[in-house]
């Protein structure tokens, strides 16, 4: 479905509250077939996005750019202020979209969840983390879905995108809605479509990445497909919301298992006195049957370190095991400890204990060229080094502050070469980092496996 011309009839200021409602069907509902109730329903917004984080904000901007009236909702006024002040961590293309959206009267930001009833479609994009015991923390998702159910009205499409366990769309949306007398597929439409946003990487635009969607009923899937087709070139409809939920778990579990395997091969190659990246680069020349994954200090971000644990948690209830996944996640979780142990050995080989050692960590974001610290292995590494008595500092052009793991906060060092480190740990290699000074460093632990060979450089 091609994008429609943008409707400019909303009487509201960007970031404010609607001044009046308009009896207008959402642009994307044209030809909705069974969705006749929406044609008669008054909606101020075509789409409301619940959660304006790393997924919700780019999603809202893409939908707005396609000509839709968008409401961005977040319970954090501080987050909304960051967005309004254009300080959000976004790709350059999304920064331009944000600048345009903030001038667009059909784009609104608010913390007022009661506005949910004024949107033809509601998309939930909130975090689904795990706690310190690697148990899923569903608190944020449950609260968001409860609000969606409370304010749901006849004719709406309610779609979940947050990665979670199989059956969550049914448990958190469909059944509570039915208990209210809103039957999915008849009164409202309920679906799941996993997000596919890669923070900090612009290789694929939002519109170019295919979307998977599954409805609680066939009619729900059809309505959700129409919404997604308005801002995405290809939509793949699956038989159910459960299948769509499992699709996301498969995607990120696949990555987790292969990253764990790459880490294992790094250890094997070290033992056999060869460079693992020489092996991986060579294997990557095969045009079929191989996909390159690279080793590192661990896995960060909101997906790979968390999502497989939702599946493992659900399987425990059914008394099922998944040995390959379990071992991969255990290996990933233990990787930062390997960094600390290697740091201890490097210092020991130079007749310096870790207690009192000055250790500089280069790059604390979980991946290059983002300011995202979520689940970053660097945080665990820093906390462990400090617990062992080391004096730790970090330098990161994207992150100005980072927690030290002991209730304090570290400030990024602007001149890491002048800090006088006994050991430098290269954790995240941002594209704008100047690393020539490492040639004169006392000792360097390279967790990226990409620094040139040198007498002072040790691979993880």
UniProtKB/TrEMBL annotation:
UDP-glucose/GDP-mannose dehydrogenase C-terminal domain boundaries: 360-453
Keyword field: NAD, Oxidoreductase
Protein species of origin: Arthrobacter gyeryongensis
NCBIfam families in alphabetical order: NDP-sugDHase
The family this protein is said to belong to: Belongs to the UDP-glucose/GDP-mannose dehydrogenase family.
Feature: compositional bias, Polar residues: 8-23
This protein's name: Nucleotide sugar dehydrogenase
Region Disordered: start-end pairs: 1-35
